[in-house]
Amino acid sequence: MRKLLLLGLLLAGACQSRTVEQPAPVSGPAAVASGPRPALDAFLAGIRAGDLQAISEVWGDKNGPVRDSKVFSREEMEQRELILIRCFKHDKARVLGDAAAANGERAFSVELTRGTTVRVTDFFLTKAPERWYVRSANMEPVRDLCSTK
């Protein structure tokens, strides 16, 4: 009887289940913005998709994302994002070059194709304490595209 009780206790212990919480894997723009190229790719993907949220994840400066900076109101930030989408909208993007820029930034030369129109412009990326952000882009080469849909 004693052996049966001991065997029962061992089996009961073996049948217990435990829930172990594991941190969720990082995904989306936060994961891909760990370097300058992934941040640029996430920004361009947000532009192409017309996704304001995705753009706001990777548009910023050395202090972090613009959406957290209080430099712009939310409404003004979204209006600026809509302008970025209108001007940099593309069917295809191809990085032509990557070079060091002032203050530890990276400058990427990017070919944007919209229909049969091709423009080459520069994007400047900067590193914040936790990740990279697209700080600015040269709008001059795409200025004529800003007024077309």
Question: How does CATH name the architecture?
Answer: Roll
How would the global form be characterised? globular
User: What is the residue-mean pLDDT, rounded to a whole number?
Assistant: 83
**End-to-end span in angstroms?**
84 Å
* Biggest sheet record: 4 strands, antiparallel
Strand order of the largest sheet: 3-4-5-6
SS-derived structural category: alpha+beta
Description:
The chain has 149 residues and is an alpha+beta fold. The chain has one domain (30-145): Nuclear Transport Factor 2, Chain: A. Helices cover 38% and strands 26% of the residues. The protein has helices at 2-14, 29-32, 36-49, 52-58, 66-69, 74-88; strands at 60-61, 64-65, 92-100, 106-114, 117-127, 132-137. The strands form two sheets. A four-stranded antiparallel β-sheet has the order 3-4-5-6. A hairpin with a 5-residue loop joins strand 3 (92-100) and strand 4 (106-114). The longest helix is centred in the middle third of the chain and has 15 residues, at 74-88. It is globular and about 40 Å long. The model is unreliable at 1-32 (pLDDT under 50).
List keywords for this structure.
single chain; 149 residues; alpha+beta; Nuclear Transport Factor 2, Chain: A; four-stranded antiparallel beta sheet; two-stranded antiparallel sheet; 6 helices
Please give the structural blueprint:
Layout: H1 2-14, H2 29-32, H3 36-49, H4 52-58, E1 60-61, E2 64-65, H5 66-69, H6 74-88, E3 92-100, E4 106-114, E5 117-127, E6 132-137
Antiparallel strand pairs: 1-2, 3-4, 4-5, 5-6
Overview in brief:
This protein has 149 residues and is α+β, with helices and mostly antiparallel strands. The chain has helices at residues 2-14, 29-32, 36-49, 52-58, 66-69, 74-88, and strands at residues 60-61, 64-65, 92-100, 106-114, 117-127, 132-137.
